Amino acid sequence: MARGPVSVQLYSVRDRLADDLEGTLERLAALGFTNVEPYGVFVAGSDRYAAALAATGLSAPSAHAGVLELSDPAPAFEAAAALGVRTVIDPAHRTDDWESVDGIARIAERINRAAERAREYDLVFGYHNHWWELEARPTGVPALEQLAARLTDDVVLEVDTYWVEVGGESAPDLLGRLGERVKLLHVKDGDRSRDTKRQLPAGEGVLDVPAILDAAPSAMRVLEFDDYDGDTIDGLAASLAYVNHLEAGK
């Protein structure tokens, strides 16, 4: 089976981007990345991002934008389409609705409505988890799984495998249960704590990264740090080398 392509979430290098957008993208390209995943700031600066992507030869097949909190998602979808993005992911929806079955149904309605709007721009819409969607377990089943069962067929999931394990679930097991709904993975490592400074390059922490990648072989691998106590570019280089090494053996 073909392995999923590799990308990098630009939130990892947010401080560098603020100082030097094109130069930072050039450094990522020099590491061997061909894909990037922009985060929310691209919406207000889509022209700059489009120019920088073109200058560095990078593509942005997916992007994060906080659509579910917007009264009108059109600007986010328009900006994404201008960058050549194909999939827009809502990065986080923090609400007490995760704690009840009825609340999860309301979240699903919001996501399904956003997906319907995204289709107007030839975009796919999806959701990215943190830990709270796994810790919440109305009826004993993680809220994220209950959500997945209520989404329309064209909605995708970007599973953040680190936060899944912080939330108390085995990432490989969850990926197996979610199946083809999972089109993207956030790949990072660490000690399963919420202290983001303790995140580590893939392969240097306690997560079973090989099993995670094997559980969703065709999903895009998006490397990320929420934070990192070191040089982030070096950390991303280590993650990329590790993932490439694993995938080369498949």
TrEMBL record:
Keyword Isomerase among UniProt keywords: yes
InterPro entries documented for this protein: IolE/XylAMocC-like, Xyl_isomerase-like_sf, Xyl_isomerase-like_TIM-brl
Xylose isomerase-like TIM barrel domain ranges (all copies): 28-215
Gene Ontology molecular functions: isomerase activity
Keywords: Carbohydrate metabolism, Isomerase
Protein name according to UniProt: Sugar phosphate isomerase/epimerase
Origin species: Amnibacterium kyonggiense
